[in-house]
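Board notes, transcribed. Complex of a protein with iron/sulfur cluster.
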Amino acid sequence: MTKEKLQQEIRKLAKDRKALILAHNYQPPEIQEVADLVGDSLELSLQAAQTDAKVLVFCGVVFMAETAAIVSPEKIVLLPNPQAGCAMADMITPEDVKALREKYPGAPVVTYVNSYADVKAESDICCTSANVVRVVASLPEKEVICLPDKNLARYAQRHFPDKKIIYHEGFCPFHDVLTPEDVQRAREAHPEALFVAHPECRPEVIDLADHVASTSGMLRFCRESDHKEFIIGTEVGLLYPLQKQNPDKKFYPASEKMLCEAMKITTLELVYKALESLEPRVTVPEDIRSRALRAVKRMLEVPRS
Ligand code: SF4
């Protein structure tokens, strides 16, 4: 079957199942093409929760499907490839969070949404790479635990000279891999381009950035900028929506090393099978779900300005 035919069959089956197909910005182009919504993980889950879809097919990784299940417990959440894990989310456990709380009593725990439900459940509040500064600013305490990403925590620290941000030694291997030398090489190859970095990059890479933003923030920045060329310091999958939305602009990966394999193992065939069988499902036990939801809701209550 051709790619186009399979995509048509998927759309037909999705309609029959009253299903919404969600694709993260890092998914392969053929998956983004067939999706109802493309975006970052939290925005996809929140948008999907507002719909009357009975089934959500999350083309992303496990923690993203869990977040959809946390905010939409009444919907069936499918993860077409259950092997799609997240190397960063794997770097922390609920026991690690408890140990940090014991070590720093009174310090609130801010957990990046790129974590599993059981870690979110141990947290006071969640954050995204877009709102981490606002979330930390909303906390009166001088000491704040920010996990699991040490790079995101150190990025937050830059904005709060009067606070101490305590971090866990987690990181995203596909952002942390980017070095200043890579950026230098990309700048030499594209001297007219602005360098845009994701906060999951190392501090020495953030120092070199013309702009720092989440994936949604990068899409907005590149769309609104008068500039025509950009070096993109995040997972290479983002180049597809960037180029699609801005056909008159040029985008270059900061490094081809920034490729998350887990984000590429969802195929059209697996999406079709998931819709056909309504498996594999992702569920979150209710005691974990309700505590994780509390941390997510608290984040959503933080004022925008
Ligand atoms: S890019 Fe990094 S944070 Fe995102 S799913 Fe892959 S390992 Fe996890």
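The domain at 174-259 is CATH 3.40.50.10800 (Rossmann fold). The chain has 15 helices and twelve strands.
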